[in-house]
Amino acid sequence: MLIDTHCHLFMKPLCEDIEGVLKRAALKGISAIIVPAVETRSWKSIAELSEYPSVYTALGLHPWCADEALDTAMLGKLLVGTGSVAVGEIGLDFKIETPGRITQITVFRTQLDLAAELGLPVILHCRGAFDEMLSILSEKKYNGNVRGVVHAFTRGIQLAERFLDLGFYLAFGGAVTRPRAKRARSSAAAVPLRKIVLETDAPSIGMDGVEPGMMEPAHVARIAESLAMLRGISFDEITRETSRNAVDLFGIRDG
Length: 255
Ligand SMILES: [Zn+2]
Known about the structure:
It contains 9 helices and 8 strands. It is an alpha/beta fold.
C-alpha cells in the first residue's frame, strides 16, 4: 500500500474527475491521500473531500496567501471538525516578493502555535528561506513540540540533516524520477528510510514523462519505483516503510 502525502485534489483538473482520480489511485495501490490547503477559500472544498474514505485533510494558510486575514479561531475549529491530520501547508517562501517576509513569518508562527496547541503535525513549504525556517523551528517553544514534514524536498543532504535533527520527515516527489535532479536524488538515496514519505504534489509539479498540471496520486507508484532503484531496495520495502512513516506521522489508517 502506498500513501500520497501531498495532493491538491481540490484543484483543476483533479476536482473535475474525483471518482476517476481515486479509482486510478486505488488500482495502483494508493490507500490514502492527504490533501493540504492553500488559500482560505480552499478549506471548504477540502472539508467536503473528507467524505471520501481514502482522503485525509490538512488545513492551513500557504505562505503565498499570507496576506489573507488568517482566522485562527475558525482554522482551529475546522481542523478539529473535519478530523484533519495536519496543519498545512504552511511555511515560508522568500522567492516571492509579496506577501512580505514579516507577514509570512507572523502567519507561519501563528499556525505553528496552533499545531502545537492541537497536537497536530505540520506540512511545510519552504523556498529560499531555509535558515529562517530552521531557526524558528529550533526555538525552545517549537523544538520537540511541533512535528511534521518538509514537502517537495529537493535540497542537499546537509540541509536534510538539519531538518532530521529537529525530528522532521522529508517528503520526496516527482524530482526523484528525473535523472537530472542529482541533488534531490542523492538526498533521497542517503537519508534514513525511517524519515521518508512520498508525495505527488499533484497536479502542479510534473515528473519524468509527466507534464506539470497532469500529475495525480496514481503517479506516486512511479516515485516509489524510482526511490527503490536509487536506494537499491525492493519496491515492496519502499511502499511498506514509507506508508508506515506516513501512518506514524499523521496518525492515519493504512489500507
Ligand atoms: Zn502543495
